[in-house]
What we know:
The complex is a heterodimer of chains A (297) and B (505).
Chain A: H1 2-8, E1 21-26, E2 29-32, E3 36-37, H2 38-57, H3 76-100, H4 103-106, H5 110-127, H6 129-132, H7 156-165, H8 190-203, H9 214-229, H10 255-264, H11 279-290
Antiparallel strand pairs in A: 1-2
Helix pairs in contact in A: 3-11, 5-11, 7-11, 8-9, 8-10
Chain B: H1 17-24, E1 40-41, H2 54-72, E2 89-92, E3 97-100, E4 103-105, H3 111-131, H4 134-139, H5 141-157, H6 160-168, H7 173-199, H8 204-212, H9 218-238, H10 240-246, H11 249-256, E5 263-266, H12 268-271, H13 277-285, H14 298-301, H15 322-334, E6 341-344, H16 346-354, H17 365-387, E7 391-397, E8 404-405, E9 411-421, E10 427-434, E11 439-444, E12 455-458, E13 462-472, E14 480-489, E15 495-503
Antiparallel strand pairs in B: 2-3, 3-4, 5-6, 7-9, 8-9, 9-13, 10-12, 10-14, 11-13, 14-15
Amino acid sequence: MAEILKEQEHNDIDPLTGTATTGHDWDGIHELNTPLPRWWLWTFYACIVWAIGYWVVYPAWPLLTNSTQGVFGWHTRSAVVTDLDELKLVRGPMMDKLTDASVADIVKDPKLTDFARALGRTAFADNCAPCHGAGGGGAKGYPNLNDDDWLWGGKLASIEQTVRHGARSGDKDDHEGNMPAFGREGMLKPNQISATADFVRSLSGLAVEKGADLALGKQVFADNCAVCHGPEGKGNREVGAPNLTDKIWLYGPEKETIMQGIQNGRGGTMPAWQGRLGEPVLKALVVYVYSFGGGEK
Amino acid sequence: MQAVRTLSLDQAAPAAPGLARLVAAAEVGDPPPGDDIPLYAPRRKIYPQSVHGTFRNIKWAVLLVTLAIYYLLPFVRWDRGPNAPHQAVLIDFPSSRFYFFFIEIWPQEVYYLTGLLIVASIVLFLMNAIAGRVWCGYLCPQTVWTDLFFAIERLVEGDRRDHMHRDGRKWTAETYARKGVKHFLWLMVAWWTGGAWVLYFADAPTLVKELATLQAPFIAYAFIGILTFTTYTLAGHMREQVCLYMCPWPRIQAALTDEYALNVTYRYDRGEPRGSVTRANELRAQGKPAGDCVNCKQCVRVCPTGVDIREGSSLGCIQCGLCIDACDAMMSKLGRAAGLIAYDTDINIKRRMEGTQPFVKLVRLRTVLYAAVIAIAGGIMIFTLATRDSEGISVIHDRNPMFVRLSDGSVRNGYTVRIVNKHLKKREFALGFNGLPATLIDFVGLPPREDGELWIDVDPDQTRELRVVVTDYGLPPPASTRIVFRLTDVATGEQAEARDHFFGP
C-alpha cells in the first residue's frame, strides 16, 4: 500500500506524448492518464438515475411473498393477455367468416381456405397430434389421415361429423359400432379364429400359412364378419368396419395382430370435439384434415 | 484566460494537458499542480471562425448536394405501374420490400445490402489511401449537419469574435434573445431532419398530409422526436466530441493511412522557424533561416474541432481543409506563396528538406487492391442484380409422415411448395415434376380452372404457398429418389427449379 502511494506521488509527463501519467509504474512502463470528457461522467450518472426509474415503474425488488409491483402496473402475464386480445382483434373478421361459412363454402374460397388451414395446423398440433401424429400420419390403432382409406368417410361432411361428434365417444350423434370379442366371448374357437385370420389376409393378397383352412375361414367370415365388413370384406363406413381388401391396416397385417382383433375385439375411440373447441376452430380442423391429401370429393 | 460561459454540460475545471493538446492546444491552461490527477476533462467550447476559399466552397457544395438529396429524395416519384408504390426510394416494412428507383429488393435478397456495405467500406478505405479522411471532412452526416448548425450559429450570434465577446460579457436580454433564436432555428432544422427520415418509410406526400393533420401513426411522430433530439444534440451541442470520443473511425483510419496518402499537412519545412513578420524580416536580413508561418493562429481559429494542424496529423483533425483556406488567405495578404498548409505527405516534406523532388504516388499496391475489390464486389452485385430471376420455387418435404401408403399400395409424398413472382404483374405457372416415371401430381386446395389447365396464378410481386402431393403408381420406388420440381411461366417460358426427394418404404 505504502509503495503504491509512493508511486503516485510523482505524476510525470510522458516525454513522447506530452501526456501526464497516472504515476503507476510497471517494470518501467507508465500508464498515460487520458481523461474522459466530463459529459461522459454526467451521462453515466444520468444512466444510473434512469436505472433507478426502472425500479419505480416496473416490478423490481423481491419481497417476502411478492415483489414490488411498479407504478406502471406492467406484468408479463397481462402483457401476454393484451397481445392475445390484439391478435383476436386482427383475426376477428376472418374468424367471423369461418363461423358463418359452411366447410363446403370455405374450401371454395382460397383465402378462407388458407386461413382455415393455418388455424387448423395449430389446432391439430394442440388437440389431435397426440394420437394421430404431428402430420396426421397416424399410429397403430389411430388412423393415418393422409391416405385415401377412411373408416367413417373422407368427404368434407363425413370428416366434419367425425370431428364434431367423435367415434364411440358417448356423444349422442357419435359413430357407433364395435368389433366384438369373438374369442373371449366364446363365439369362435381358436382354430376358427386362426382360419379366419388366414382368410382375411388372403383378401388383400397377403401370403397365408401352408395348410391354412381357407374354406373354414371363408365360412366363418360369411357367418360372423360379413354382416359388418361386407360379403367381400370391403368394409362398411356406417359402422366403421374397415375395408379388409386394401393395403392399409389400422392395427397391422400380421396374422397374430388380426387374431388378437378377432379374439378381443376392437373399438378405438375418438372424442367429440364439438363443445370443446370453438366453431371456427372445428371447421378449420376439418378443412386442414381434408387438405392432407386424402379428402374425398 | 477569460472566463467562458458555455452551453455544454461541463463547468470550468482544471485542464488535462494530454486531452487539451488534442482538443484545443492553443487555448489550454497549465497542468494542475502536485499529484492531483484529473480523471475527467472539461470541455473547451470551440468558436470556429468563418473562412472563405476553395475548400470552404467545396464543403458548401457538398453540404447543399447531400442535404438536398436527404430532404428531397422521398418526394421523387417513380412509376412502377399499378401494383407497386410510386416512390423512387422507399423502405416498405409492412410489405417487406425495399424500392430504389428501378430496383426492388425482397427480404431474402438482403445480401445486396451486405454487398453494398462491403463496397462502401472499401470505398472508405480507398478514399483514405488517396486523400485521408475525405469522409470525415466532407461527407460524414455529423460533419455536414454540424457545419449547417455552425452556419446558423454565426448568422444569429455572429462570427467568432462577436460570439465570444457576447458569451464572455454579462448576458443581456439581447444575448438571451439571440441564443433563443439560434436554438429555435436548430430545433427547426433538427425537426425537419427527423421529418425527412420517416418519409423514407411511407408514401411521402400522404405522410406529410397525415403528419400535418395529426393523423399519422404514433411511430412516425416518435421517430421524428428521436431524430430531432439526436440531430439537435449531436450537431448543436456534441459536435467535435462525437469525432473525438464517440466515433470509431478516427481510430480505424490511423491504421489505414500510409506514408503516401495525401493528408492536410502543415509544411514545416517551409513554415519553421515560425515567428512574426518583423522577426522573420530581421532573421532574413541577418541571413538566417526564417519560416513562412507568422504564428497568426488562423488555422486553429477556423478549425471546427479545435486542433492545431501545425502539430501534425492527429485524432482530432477531420481533414476538412478549412485551415488550408485560412492559411492561404493569410499568405496572399503577406504576399507569400499559398500552400503552407496543403494536401501533402510527410515523405514530400522530408524530400524537400533533402533537396529532392516531391512526388505524388496515387497508384500503389494498396489503392490498386482496394479499387480491384470495389470493381469485383460491385461487378458481382451488378451482374447478379441484372441476371436475377423474377420467379422462384422452394419446396419443403413433409416431415411427418415421410410417405403415405394408399389403399391400392401406391406411395404418396406431400410437399409444401412456395412459388415466387417478382414481376409487378399477375403470372400463371405450370408446375412439372421430374425423376419418377409414373407419377401424378395433385394440388391441394387449388380450385380447378374453367379451361381445365392445372395452372397456378400468383399475384403481382407476391408469393403463393401450395400443398402438393405426388403419387407414384409405378413399382415401389427405392427408399429415396431424387426428384426435381420445375416451374414454368406459361406465357414467357421462364423456368425455375427446386430439387428434393421422394421417399418410399
